[in-house]
Structures are given as structure tokens and as C-alpha cells.
Amino acid sequence: MSSRDSKASDEIKHIDSFQSLESVKPPALDAHYDPAFVKKTIRMIDWRMLPLLGLLYSVALIDRINLGIARTAGMQEDLRLDIGQRYSIASMIYFFPYMIFQIPGNLILRTVGSRNMLTFCVTAWGIAQLGMAFVKTWGFLCLCRVFLGAFESVFVPSMVFIITTWYKRYEVQQRLAIFYLSSIAVSSFSSALAYAINLLAGKGGLNGWRWIFLLEGAFTILLGILAWFFSPDFPDKSKWLTEKQRQMVLERVEADRGDSAADELTRQKVFTHLKDPLIWAFGLMFLASTVPAYAIAFFITIILKAMGFSTAVSLLLTAPPGIYAAVVCYFFAWLSDKTKHRAGWMVVQSLITLTGLAIAAYHPNNGVRYFGLFLVNAGATSCIPGVLAYNSNNITTHSKRAVFTGSIILWGGVGGIMATTVFREQDFPRYVNGMWATIGLQLLNIVLLGVTTFVFKRRNRLRREGKIGPLEGQENFYYTI
């Protein structure tokens, strides 16, 4: 048997090992699909997945960060959050369960099923959010935040995992950006919505902040029920595509990176993946990106109020930076996919964030400081899907994707803890120490991007020279810089 025949035979065995792919041919034997058919199918997938997931993540983000809005709307006085570090602790405590369940949730996702997992998690965190409307003490508020973090923890890594299994490597960042920026755009209006809800203060004997938690929690529960009927799944398990469409999607992924078939998940594989230094590099990049994003989310209304704006104006002024960030985020995602380049654009985004932090911390004019918040939000927001795409482009196999995605987003939880602790109450209103800690993280991000670029370029060169074996176990795979 020739080496070509042997290779084709191995590829066929690899694909045949997964039951739902029995009819799929290896990349070298793929049928040629009508481009119009491919375009129509991909558009159908986009519309089925991205609006729903974007809306759910919008709600998750709103439920996660609306503590600052509620504080401005009267919760601080009712629960005495002005004592010591109560507000920072209530904000931070969410992230401990949020981190703990990231990886386990991704590891059991295929077994439990996307629809079951999604419906349970969304409904459960909606109940926790609704429960905050009725807490009488600061301690019970923290307890509800613990449950909120536990149930939200599984959602984001699961959705990133699922999205990255549907698309080719240089299609994925725009999809992740749409998923993420739609949440940023929607959540940017959460303050305006909260302001409207706050007008219900006194109705039913509830203060305005209680109405915020009550109505937003009830809406989340409703979305959890709807998720049962419309949530997506992995390509091989999807029931809403025709057999030809499903086969085309799987063949595209197989030809692009060779991991359309789910490999067996074992304990040894999990520990092997966790020992890969790249997982820590990507995780620290995600940490550096999420700290400024969370800082803006938790403290923007407080910073604006400290500038002298009224409560109503402070709530309304939180929307424009978010809308601007969504536009910039999509622009960089489009540019990154078009140029098939990741690291360089993320360096630019980190520099934008760094510039905005310096302006917000030190400029004497409040209008210019407000502009600095635009830059911080835009740079950090753009980097988040960038890191996820950079990671997903440079790994293969479902097991590694599950472990890496869960671990990286876990570092986002660390970023949330840092954002709520380095922006200390005693540093109000400019939070200079927090600004400098975040500036340091942007410099770390730039260094890490330089290191990974060097490593990937070197490995690609050695592979082309035949000095090392196949990268990521795939014959024609090369790292994305």
C-alpha cells in the first residue's frame, strides 16, 4: 500500500470512529459543495445560534454586574454597603463559585447535553437573581451572589466551546465577537433600563433596587424556559440541519483542523492538557483583558456620579461607552479574521486600554476622563473575543478544547476578583491604585503576546523544515500568529 493510500485509510478510520460521522469522507476525498449552499447553511447556523446565545449572555452579564446600579439606586443605604469593604466583598464573592465549576461544566457538557445544561443553568441563576430582590441583610445578598456565580459559571465556557466547533478557524473570531458584543451592546442599556425600573420605587412596598432584581430575575427565568426549545448543540448532534448540511459542516471543520470527531475524554488527557504552558499564557491574557472590562462594569456609574453627575444622568451615561466598545470590538474581529492574524491586533487593543486608563486616572477634566472610559471599554472588550479566538485557533481535539476553554474563562473569574479588590473604597473617586494595577496587566498582556508569537513562529518554522513532527497531532496544521 502506498503512503498516500495509507494516509487516506488512517483518515477514514479516524472519521469512522465517531458514529454520527460514518458517512463523512476524509478531507482529501471531500465532495465539492455549491458555494451558495455553503453560504446559506452558514448563515442559517449564524441566525440559529448567535442571537439566542448573545441574548442569554447579555442577561448573564446584566445579572452579574447590576450590583453597582442597584447600589446607586438605594441598596447601599438599605443594606449598609458603605460599611468597610461590604460592597467589594459582595461583588467579589460571586467569582469563587464561578471559577470552581468552569472546567467540570465543560467536561460533562457533551454527556449532559447542551439543551439540558443551558436550560437548567439559566433558570437557576434567574431564581438566584430574583431572590436578591427580597434579601434583608448584606449576608443574604452575598449568599444569593454565590448561587448566581455557581449557575452562571457553566454557561460562558460551554457556549464558547460549542461555537468554536461549528466554524473554521478564521471564521470564529467574528462569531465570538458577535456573541460577546451583542451582550455588551444590550447590557450597556441596562443602566437606562434600571433607571426606568427604579421609577417603580415604593410600589408594592419595594424600593427601586428591589424592583431591578425582581423584574430582571423574572425575565431570566423566562429565557431559561425558552432555551429548552431553541438552544443549539454540537454539530454532530444537531437536529435542525439536514443530513447534507450537517455533513458539510463537519467536513469543513475536518479539512480545516482535523477535529470534527469528538475524541474520548480521559483523566490522563485532562491532566496532560492542564500541564501545557500555553493554557497558562492564554489564561493570563484573558485575566488582563477582563480586569478593565469588569472594573468598568462594576464602577462606571460610581465614577460618573463622583464626577458630579446626578444618579439619573450617571445611569444614562453608561450606555455610550458600551455601544462604542461593541463597534470597535466587531471591527477588530473582522480585521483579525480577514488578515488571519491575532496577536498583533491584540497588542493594539491593549495599548488602547492602557491609554484610556491613564486618561481616566489623571486628566483633570471630567469630560476627557469620560472619553478615557470609552477607550478602556473598547480596548478591553475587543481583546476578550480576541484571546478566545487566538486560543481556539491554536488547539485541536474536543478534549483539549473543553479543558482549555474552561480554564481560560476561569481566569476571567480571577479578573473579576481583582477588579473588585484593586479598585478599593479608600481610593474613591479616581481609583488610581486600581488604574495602575490594570495598566500593569496590559503590559503583561503585551509581553505574553510577544512570547507566544515567538513560540508559534519557531514551531511553524521547524515543522516546515521537517525538524519536528506534526503540530497538535495534525499533519497540515500550523499555528495562527
UniProtKB/TrEMBL annotation:
Residues 49-460 form the Major facilitator superfamily (MFS) profile domain. Keywords: Membrane, Transmembrane, Transmembrane helix, Transport. It comes from the Eukaryota. One of its GO terms (molecular function) is transmembrane transporter activity. The chain crosses the membrane at residues 49-67, 87-109, 116-135, 147-166, 178-197, 209-230, 278-303, 309-333, 345-364, 370-390, 402-423, 435-456. GO terms for cellular component: membrane. InterPro entries: MFS, MFS_dom, MFS_trans_sf. It is a multi-pass membrane protein. It is found in: Membrane. Pfam families: MFS_1 (PF07690). This is Major facilitator superfamily (MFS) profile domain-containing protein. It comes from Hypholoma sublateritium (strain FD-334 SS-4).
